[in-house]
Write a structure and sequence with these properties.
Helices cover 57% and strands 8% of the residues. With 287 residues, it is mostly helical. It is elongated. The termini are far apart. The relative contact order is 0.05.
């Protein structure tokens, strides 16, 4: 187990550790930097600017087979060489899931007020289109995010972002999609379901997250208004019928359906009674 340092023109800019030998890890760093997809953006930009010949790697210390000791010594050298404040180390030693508070503050200040052009946004979007994460990468992301605490500032920023894109503020507000757009989205979704789909575990999680979810009366009214008068195509009806075939409905669900049907009919009868009274000639006053 080795702890190494990466220098740029003789200045220490990064401290790292590896459970293998440091030469192998340095080779991996160089491969990623040459491809332009190194996980450390600061180091990648510096490499692109100064060139490969400006960077060298050296062994600092070797540690016996003790992972905790390795992380402890790595953090010691990061502190001693000050590579978090004045270098490219963005996280604490052994922390693969989150940045240090100091690094978060730096990133926040650097990004505050930045407005990306439409061209830049399109490039970022195109770069991620069609990108499929491996199961190993998904597992790492899941493990890194589990138990992560979100501070109130981040929560508030997320709330404000949601509000800024809700209702009339949404870019697609009032815009009707053409039949061609809907067809493209439908085909894209069908392809995704066929090639990727949801795992049984994912389906179970979705089911559990929706259990007990109460929809407000306001939301129900909006959904009802949206669907009123909507005509389903024959293909749509067939898809619904195919999806319902073989489906087993529990007794509890059956009872809910019965109760909802009774409520709808009771409401309908009350509305009809009011209409009948309002139009009954016997109730009209004689002139």
């Amino acid at each position: 187990m080795d702890i190494y340092k990466i220098e740029r023109n003789g200045e220490v800019v990064y401290v790292g550790s590896t459970t293998r030998d440091w030469q192998t890890r340095w080779m991996e760093h160089r491969c990623c930097l040459r491809r332009g997809d190194h996980h450390n953006n600061h180091m990648q930009r510096s490499w692109d600017k100064w060139g490969e010949e400006a960077f060298t790697c050296h062994l600092i210390e070797s540690v016996e087979d003790d992972t905790e000791r390795l992380v402890e010594r790595e953090q010691y050298w990061m502190n001693t060489l000050n590579t978090q404040a004045n270098g490219y180390n963005q996280k604490d030693a052994g922390d693969v899931g989150s940045h240090s508070e100091e690094t978060r503050e730096k990133i926040s200040k650097a990004l505050t007020g930045i407005k990306r052009s439409e061209e830049t946004r399109k490039k970022m979007s195109d770069a991620h289109k069609g990108k499929v994460l491996t199961e190993e990468t998904k597992a790492k992301l899941s493990a890194a995010l589990k138990g992560r605490e979100i501070n109130e500032r981040t929560r508030e920023a997320a709330r404000q972002l949601c509000l800024s894109r809700t209702g009339e503020n949404h870019p697609s507000w009032g815009r009707k999609q053409s039949a061609e757009e809907r067809a493209k989205k439908s085909e894209s979704m069908k392809k995704w379901v066929e090639e990727v789909g949801f795992s049984e575990e994912h389906k179970q999680k979705i089911s559990e997250s929706l259990m007990g979810h109460e929809v407000s009366e306001e939301a129900r009214a909006k959904i009802s208004d949206k669907l009123s008068g909507r005509e389903l195509s024959d293909e749509h009806r067939k898809n619904i019928a195919a999806g319902m075939k073989g489906r087993v409905v529990s007794e509890a669900t059956r009872e809910k359906i019965r109760q909802k049907a009774k409520e709808r009919w009771a409401k309908k009868r009350a509305e009809n009674a009011v209409k009948a009274e309002s139009t009954d000639p016997a109730l009209e006053e004689n002139p």
